[in-house]
Amino acid sequence: MDALPNELLIQITSHLDSEPPSITKFAHEPSTELTFRDCTPLKFFSLVSWRWRKIVLPLLFRYSRLSLDTEPQWVPIDARLVDSMQGQLTTLSNHEFQIYHKMRSKFKSSSTFAYDEAYDDLLINLCRVQDGDNFLKSVPHILWLPHLPRTFADFSQFATQYNLKHHMKSIVLQTDKEYELRHVSTADGPLSRAVTEIWNQIFSCLEPTRVVVAAPPTTLAGLLDTQMLSSDAWTFDMKMHYIELLHSSPTHLEHRNAKCRPWDWALVHRRPWHHLAYNEGSSITAYSTYEYHLKQSPKMLYLILLRLAKEAQACCNIESFSFTGVFPFATNITTIIRALHRIPTLKRISVQFAPGAENGLLSEPGRLGRAQPSDFWLEWTESYKVVASYLGVFDFADGAEFMSRDCASERQGVEVGECMELLRKRGAGWRKASGEGVWVRDHGLDREVGSAAADGTVAHVVVPA
Fold it and tell me: What is the rounded CA–CA span in Å between residue 344 and residue 359?
């Protein structure tokens, strides 16, 4: 093997390469295992010798994972803590001493209320612990905001040293840590700065064409600069959501300077993404609650789509959209579709509303609780009716694609097929393509229909020929 030229070794390593788990498992129920797999031939190949490692390096780091640091770094400063600092002034670091004087003067102007616990959320200040802040490190309640680990600097230096910037095509940013300060108004500023710092550091040293964020809903909302818009999140017990953003090539400078979008610090405006995929996981625990159909799941996806609709021009808006959820409520799908209606650039839509073959959820009584499987399938059917209505009225161009990944199951495939056939009978030209569960928009098949079918889900549809 050592006698082989580098060109042959490169050819050998290309046969060892395969799709990463962050792609093959993206549609699975979200978990911390998104980036893990048992077989890692490229890593083993890189351990043989320095020569082999140098050859395999560009492939080895093409799909990279960054885990957020879980160490809490922020201390809530209130009047009682400032008083305790006063007794240790001689041992405070310069940073702590500055905090003491700043907060002392602030509390003097509101001394009547500073010690009232009811005002803690208004008067509290979050201060980041720095090296040498021994007093702040000893505080019992240190809080967490999203931040990259200290080792990211070494990772960045490594990427620069081996010219890996343009070889790292995909970055998965992940954490299982929940952000717990959503109801503390004074935390919004530090959160915004912390998230800005994360994306600034990543995009300053890397040029990924694919970014995946895997995090609990509360944390994901912060990382995406959006809100949850749900007080019922606890009923869904969604441990993690995934979002995937793709763009086809490195951004041209002239495009970055255009006024086609804000190009601000938010991830959704960091690049001209052409594809957005979202996996919100399972909604089944909410089916066990009273009047489950009134519950609202987290709305980050809806808000992100609205932001794209309002702030991104057609030249750099998404053309492809994919949604995965395990028995989502039809009301949730209706909300998402309402946002999709406002994005005129879409050419490809993909959905999955039922568990995949890898998911044994329906055979786990502990997870089903008091929920009735009939309710799952009722919402599943209603969700596809909502999607079909969208496909029937949205002005898709010829060749636009719709894909249902539920069609991998024969029974579900039949039901989806019937839904699409009903749409065709009502005049919307969608023809079955060769792929599994794929339909293609064909305006040549459009026809005018004066009345809807007997079930009455659509009263009148007119599709221009």
Answer: 34
Length of the chain: 465
| Whole-number Å distance between alpha carbons of 175 and 213 | 9
Residues contacting 308, CB < 8 A, separation 6+: 268, 276, 317, 318, 343
The confidence band for 184, taking pLDDT boundaries of 50, 70 and 90, is: confident
Question: How far lies 108's CA from each of 104, 111, 400, in Å?
Answer: 6, 5, 64
Whether 76 and 41 have beta carbons less than 8 Å apart is answered as no
Residue of 275, 278, 298 whose CA lies nearest to 286: 298
Residues forming a β-bridge with 140 = none
Identify any residues that bridge with 77 across adjacent strands, giving them in sequence order.
125
> Which among 207, 179, 174, 211 is positioned nearest to 192, based on CA atoms?
179
- For residue 356, give the DSSP letter: -
pLDDT at 300: 97
* Cα angle 355-29-430, degrees, rounded to a multiple of 5: 50
Which residues in 273-422 belong to E strands, given as ranges?
275-282, 320-326, 348-352, 401-404
C-alpha 415, offset from chain centre = 29
Task: Give me 197's structure tokens.
Answer: 């710092």
For residues 68 and 147, the answer to whether their CB atoms sit within 8 Å is yes
